Amino acid sequence: MNIAQGRLSRILVWGALCLAALLTTFPLLYAIAASLMTQSDFNAGAVLPSWPLEFSNYVAAFERFPLLRYFGNSFIMAGLVTVAVLVTSSMAAFSFTFIPFRGRGMLFAIVLGTLMIPWEATIIVNFQTVRDLGWLNTFQGLTVPSFAMGFGIFLLRQSFRTLPNDLHEAMQVDGASRFRFFVSTVLPLNRPMLATLAVFTFITTWNTYLWPLLVTSEERVRTVQIALRSLQGEATTAWPLVMAATVMVMAGTLIVLVLGQRQLKAGLVAGAVKG
């Protein structure tokens, strides 16, 4: 009886997991299928593309719009923000963890408080600042407002706190400076968490739509997310072409996930164990 109940429970769990996986991946699978359809098949409500597959949609997306430039702009924006967030977050987290100073707890509480403020609440102030600095239609305007992230500081501080204080004291006795301890010990020992933050920041920045829409009006600095919107016409839209461009945009984030999968998994596991 117990064996039968256990087997039934496993079947139900696996069934629920398979259903959840299907619901999660269905939009991606449908986007791939729709990108290989003709316009007539899509208008007819087809679920699967007919043979031969319409790979010309991918070619048409590059011919009609400068997608390579948009991809390059998105990569530059996401790359700059990722590097800056890693630098600022790691240095701030190191200060909060290993450098005692007056008001450290209060200042860290303020950093945590920024996590409770929605980004939309500060977008007007950020836009006015970027405009006053003359940074509209520049990569500075796209990236600088995102160079510091409260979540990144919190994540790395929690990771840095797991290092024993004896290690820091031993290196001080040996005459090592704080910077050397930071570069040669703290960062290498927290590589998985740094990779986790890097992947999270890159994907979040890559998928940003509203901020690039506000601070850019020239094609030379617009990102790929804006390009997807420009593919849609006012009267009619070639949805197979839009889906082809969407698949290529998603491929960028999937490549980052695949390349950072091992470090990302290690960081998540380490965070769960340390928590």
UniProtKB/TrEMBL annotation:
<protein>
    <submittedName>
        <fullName>Carbohydrate ABC transporter permease</fullName>
    </submittedName>
</protein>
<feature type="transmembrane region" description="Helical">
    <location>
        <begin position="238"/>
        <end position="259"/>
    </location>
</feature>
<feature type="transmembrane region" description="Helical">
    <location>
        <begin position="75"/>
        <end position="99"/>
    </location>
</feature>
<feature type="transmembrane region" description="Helical">
    <location>
        <begin position="106"/>
        <end position="127"/>
    </location>
</feature>
<keyword id="KW-1133">Transmembrane helix</keyword>
<dbReference type="GO" id="GO:0005886">
    <property type="term" value="C:plasma membrane"/>
</dbReference>
<comment type="similarity">
    <text>Belongs to the binding-protein-dependent transport system permease family.</text>
</comment>
<keyword id="KW-0813">Transport</keyword>
<feature type="transmembrane region" description="Helical">
    <location>
        <begin position="181"/>
        <end position="203"/>
    </location>
</feature>
<keyword id="KW-0812">Transmembrane</keyword>
<keyword id="KW-1003">Cell membrane</keyword>
<dbReference type="GO" id="GO:0055085">
    <property type="term" value="P:transmembrane transport"/>
</dbReference>
<feature type="transmembrane region" description="Helical">
    <location>
        <begin position="12"/>
        <end position="33"/>
    </location>
</feature>
<dbReference type="Pfam" id="PF00528">
    <property type="entry name" value="BPD_transp_1"/>
</dbReference>
<feature type="domain" description="ABC transmembrane type-1">
    <location>
        <begin position="71"/>
        <end position="260"/>
    </location>
</feature>
<feature type="transmembrane region" description="Helical">
    <location>
        <begin position="139"/>
        <end position="160"/>
    </location>
</feature>
<dbReference type="InterPro" id="IPR000515">
    <property type="entry name" value="MetI-like"/>
</dbReference>
<dbReference type="InterPro" id="IPR035906">
    <property type="entry name" value="MetI-like_sf"/>
</dbReference>
<keyword id="KW-0472">Membrane</keyword>
